[in-house]
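Sat 14:20. Reprocessing the chain from the morning session after the first attempt stalled halfway. Input below, unchanged.
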Amino acid sequence: MTLNKITIWSAALYVDVFLIHLMRLKKMTMKTIDIFQEHKPPRKKPRVLMHVIDVDGDPCDQDKPIAQFQRRKCGTISDWLNCDNVTEVKRGIPCKKCNA
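Finished this time. Tokens:
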């Protein structure tokens, strides 16, 4: 019995498709085991940030802006703080009361 190249190629393609389908079924039914779970450090609590309620300073001026922050959930209002740049003001600062 002689096999031509097309028959061998189609048989190999059929085997490849079958193996891909089999791997997908294994992924769906088999849960991945995390073998390094006991070596992972515990996650940090997320920071709670205060947001800007008032800003003073000219954005065109090179001076550092001063801002006042508030956390609406706990009601904490900060004093006027000197910030390095506008990005720091927009980002916010950590709430001392909620992150304690």
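Residues 8 and 14 are 10 Å apart (CA to CA).
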